[in-house]
Amino acid sequence: ILIPSNHKTASFYTLDKRITYYTIERPRQIRPRIPKLTSFIYYKKLLQNYKFAINNIHPDVIISTLQGEDDKILKGASVHIPIIGVNHISIFLRSKGSTLKSFEQTVKRWTKFDAIIALNRTDMLLLKQKGCNSFFIPNPCSFDKKNTTITKSEHPKYIVCVGRLDYIKGQDRLLKVWKQLAPKYPNWTMVLVGDGNMRDQYEKLEIEYNIQHRIKHIYNSNDVQTILQHASIFAFTSRTECCPMALIEAFSCALPVVCYDCESGPRDFVENFYNGFLIPNNNTELFISKLETLITNTDLRKTMSINALSTAQRVTKQIIMAQWDDLLASIVKNTKSTN
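RE: above sequence
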């Protein structure tokens, strides 16, 4: 793994002992009088550092997360070595977070990569239209197998939402829904798992809606899987997603889902009347209606729980890693045949 020198090498996750970290030093920024010269000198030195690291390692393939300066450097630093980019930020967010010219320049650089992995089909199709050799491979569900039951009628009457508390995850939209349903179903509780920069604003909104006593917050947890397994419904109101891992994890815990059909992500997994309900974005009334349907219909929850588990089987580690193995073998083979 090649990492910038200003990043910590310690991983949050336990990694295989065969994984080795290599640090690429970032050149010190100099300040000549001509700004463009500053950039030229910086990238020239950075390119040399990338080349030195890659020549020492001799990789068969390079995988980039397309963050920082990778997409500007790698093609020039790795002649004859195939490069795969993995886009972890939805195209919608990337385009909104930069100027049109900057976004188009970024995607144009990606067309020179051997493959670009999109975590949802919407992004894959958009990237293909722009000339990228794009493939759809979602992230796998990382939950260990536990004893997941599908008798959701016996579970606590919890509706759970997992995600950081911020505008993108859209818990304000869920609070608006719960404002209407909480008074009608006093035995049900909304559980919000996560923390974030909108915490204070959302707590104030709960008080304004007079639903603060009907919401349980779990700001930090090391065992989200257990929380999901003891719930009955998963509600998801993100404004945009790339690969909705919380939703995938909910399926693996046999939870039927009600979620908005935002720009990308959920539509790859949620099937109406099969494992949940995919609601047109911002249609609050329909969201309320379908969530109420699941609250009041025990048999439907059981059926959708079975189907949710079936959906989760599409994104097991074994299946997703097999897709990666096939892609890597194909990319390396094609590179060797053309060199």
